[in-house]
Predict the structure of Mannitol-1-phosphate 5-dehydrogenase.
Amino acid sequence: MKAIHFGAGNIGRGFIGLLLHQSKYEVHFVDVNEKVIDEINQEGTYNVFLANDAKDQFTVTNIKGINSKVNPEKAVEEIASADLVTTAIGPNILKFIAPLIADGLKARKAKNGQFLNIIACENMIGGSTELKKFVFEHLNDEEKTWAEEYIGFPDSAVDRIVPNQSNEKLLDVLVEPFFEWVIDETKIKGEKPEIPEAHFVENLTAYIERKLFTVNTGHATTAYLGNIKDYKTISETIAHKDVEEKVLQVLSETGKVLVEKYKFDKEEHQKYIQKIIGRFSNPHIVDDVKRVGRSPLRKLSRNDRLVAPAMEYVELFKEIPAGLVEVMASAMLFFSSEDQESVELKELIQAKGAEQAFIEVSGLSADNKLVSAVAAAYKEIQ
Ligand SMILES: NC(=O)c1ccc[n+]([C@@H]2O[C@H](COP(=O)([O-])OP(=O)(O)OC[C@H]3O[C@@H](n4cnc5c(N)ncnc54)[C@H](O)[C@@H]3O)[C@@H](O)[C@H]2O)c1
Ligand SMILES: O=P(O)(O)OC[C@@H](O)[C@@H](O)[C@H](O)[C@H](O)CO
């Protein structure tokens, strides 16, 4: 079996590539990073190490690299005959790979190609659905009709903390032991992909919201509070009792929303939260606050991990979630010269003030109570 995976970065190599290899796929990584692609083709293998006491090791073999900047035709050719396509490139990049995937589908159709599933493994709600929308912009009506019948875009939720890497060998990756890959089986076309370690579910929305509004909301909380105090890593930050308490406050707010919406068992959800705090504290992982806080414009957008649960909290409980408000205000203060979105956010705040900037970034209306609450919290923290 052959899988084409877009994005040979942290999660691409450390999670999706590993699981696909273990599921007996030959994995073709498509990336724009020349060094990484050359290394994949030269070495043909890499190691994944678990961040545990034993530093357990897995070896990934049977891999190939395609530089989509230099050789897009190769990616098109491989998609035409692939058994699976996956992505882990970042939500904002999906629109840029869509033309290439569309060309791959056209070539597949010309060869009377059969069913194919394309799974976006990004931290967002409805990632594959969004990718489908972008891909369909590059197909004509006849191609769209064919693609509706043969090409599935099942959404998915992926969970594994993979920090930025500093290994001796460029391709090796250190990852946390925990992992979860959940795929919406209702949108699969043809046979279910053979990935024994993935879970196929009918109610993906509950899984993705539970993950995004707990793991990622908690992670963002830790990163934005740590950034204000000039702490460097997630484990260093969460070790401070006041931060841990704030994370627990925020996760009890998102937890209230999730339990109300999806009727999760309260005690089970509490255990899920505690396990996540343990994951953030993993002493074998050095996860930079700047990585976890990256792209604050995306993280402060309407459907992401902060604004979405805060809006739902207000709607369900007619109260302002004080913890989430403080985190949204703290996110407005996140800055790293290497993070373009944080540079833009800073400029926006300088030009228009914090309240107007938050309105524009979050998409909330000026009279929304959350807006004045975040603006007031920002003033206090600043
Ligand atoms: N790292 C984690 O802990 C983690 C966990 C779960 C989900 N995710 C999600 O996975 C996605 C990737 O995150 P990451 O941490 O692996 O980032 P990363 O920066 O390590 O990897 C992204 C890769 O995509 C490549 N890329 C960029 N533009 C491309 C293009 N046009 N075509 C092909 N490749 C391109 C980059 O060169 C890079 O190798 C994000 O959506 C992230 O939210 C990350
Ligand atoms: O990848 P982002 O920028 O959406 O979020 C940063 C981290 O919270 C994220 O990468 C986590 O490590 C991951 O989602 C854990 O499964």
